Structure formats: structure tokens, C-alpha cells
Amino acid sequence: MAQQAIPVSGAARLGRPVGAARVAGGGDRTVCGVVLLLPAGEPMSARRPSPLAYAGVRPLARSLAAAGRAEGLAAHVVRYRGRGWNGSDARLAADATWAADEVVRRYGDVPVCLAGIDMGGRAALHAADHPAVNSVLAVAPWLPDDDVAAAEEPVKQLAGRQVLIVHGTNDERTDPELSYRLAERAKKVNRDTCRFEVHSDGHSLRQHRPEVLALAADFVLGALFGRGYARPVADALAAPPPLGLRMPLASGFGHALRR
């Protein structure tokens, strides 16, 4: 039986730039790259977007904006039309695609990284085929169980993009094994795919938050602006499965491990 569409009112929006740098005289610095933060969502829902989910990506947005200020990075949090993925409608992915279109309209031909958490990670992966997107960061992505999905999660749209997946090994909300299986399939169509495991951490990755934020910044700035990746990221991208897809995130990443 066909799945009944769930109506969602309103329109997607881009939040104001997070931590936008200012130059003397009050003008904005030239934007040379954009990262779009995609909050968590729910598999099925007609409810409005969750303020908690929006707040949940703000720390990552602030960290990336601060790290990329000198490079001309703009960070925006996407405000979805609603909180539900809603089956084949894939509304959150559609909102991510709209947001990438809006970036092109506002800033012109600049590279875009889609950075999503939970269901936002799934949206980032799905919307990677937008022409402006050159990279995807999926943190603890929500993915459907293999045995209930109508079809396998797509991976062909990841070809030609830099892709990083980060997942806690003790995540009880989103299954880290599912993100490994997706990364394994993605690696076959796109060698520039890697995945880091945060050992003993859960869905929110609170225990190793400084390392996760440093890893995210290293990847996003490297993908958008051509900066050299830290050695662990470069090694993960170059390594064949399973090594490059089960790379442990070492304590102190961003400090002693920076090459």
C-alpha cells in the first residue's frame, strides 16, 4: 500500500550566519565557502521543527564558524519545514537541497559542505548530489534498518565528494553498524570516503566533544578550502576498508596529532 503523504506547512529557511566575522567599518568579509548545519529530525512527523534539535547543532556551527573565520567560512543552520523525514517524501533532504540552492543565490559559486547530525546526517548524505556541494559530514547519522528499508540507502550521489562519517560505538539511538555498512558501500563508488569511530561514546558524543569538534573543523576546512588534512584524516581517506572506515578518534585530536 502506498504511504500516505504527511502535510507539512511553511517553508524551509536559512538561519542567520553563525559567528559571522566582521571587518573594520562593519562590513561582512567575503564568503568563500559555506557549511550548512542540518539538525536532527524524526522518521515520521507532521510537527514543526524541534527547537531542541536546532539548538543541538549550534555548538558545531559556532565551532566551525570560529575555525574558518580567516578563510571566509559562513555557517548557517537550516530550519526545516517540519521535523519528519516522512518516507519517500524525504522532506529533510529536500530542505537541504533547497538550502544549497539558497546559498548559491546569496553567495554565488562557493563550495558547500553539508554537515548533519542524526537524521540531519541522512539528509546531508542524500542531498550530496547538489552541484555546489563538495563535501558531507554526517555525525551519528540516523539510517533505516536494512530489513525495513524499501531500498538500500543511495550512495552514488556521493561520488566526487569528500565524505566523513563520525559515530560513537556506544550509540543507542542510531546504530553505528548501519553507518559502517553505508560507508562500506560508499567507498566502492567514492574513494574519498572515511569514517571515524568514537570509542565508548554515545549518541551525543559528549565524552569526546573537543576531539569531535576538532575533527569536524579539520575536515570541513580541508574540504572547502584545500587545507591539508591532519594525518589521521588523510590516512583514513587513503586506507582501504575496513581500516579507513573504523578509524579510532584518538584522545587529544586537534592538538598533539596535528601535523
Strand neighbour order, sheet with most strands: 1-3-2-4-5-6-7-8
Based on CA atoms alone, the radius of gyration comes out at 17 Å
What distance lies between the first and last C-alpha atoms, to the nearest angstrom? 55 Å
Spell out the helices and strands N to C: EEHEHEHEEHEHHE
> How does the helix and strand content classify structurally?
alpha/beta
H/I helix tally:
6
Feature tags:
disordered N terminus; alpha/beta; 17% strand; 259 residues; 6 helices; globular
Describe the structure in your own words:
The protein is an alpha/beta fold. Helix content is 31%, strand content 17%. It is built from six helices and eight strands, in the order ββαβαβαββαβααβ. It has an eight-stranded mixed sheet with strand order 1-3-2-4-5-6-7-8, sandwiched between helices. β6 (162-168), α4 (176-189) and β7 form a beta-alpha-beta unit. α1 (51-67) packs across α5 and α2 (91-107) packs across α3. The longest helix is centred in the N-terminal third of the chain and has 17 residues, at 51-67. The chain is globular, with a radius of gyration of 17 Å. 46% of the residues are buried. The model is unreliable at 1-9 and 21-27 (pLDDT under 50).
Task: Summarize the model shown.
The protein has helices at 51-67, 91-107, 119-126, 176-189, 209-225, 231-238; strands spanning 13-14, 33-38, 73-79, 112-117, 133-139, 162-168, 193-198, 247-248. It has 259 residues and is of the alpha/beta class. The longest helix has 17 residues, at 51-67.
Secondary-structure blueprint of this entry?
Layout: E1 13-14, E2 33-38, H1 51-67, E3 73-79, H2 91-107, E4 112-117, H3 119-126, E5 133-139, E6 162-168, H4 176-189, E7 193-198, H5 209-225, H6 231-238, E8 247-248
Parallel strand pairs: 2-3, 2-4, 4-5, 5-6, 6-7, 7-8
Antiparallel strand pairs: 1-3
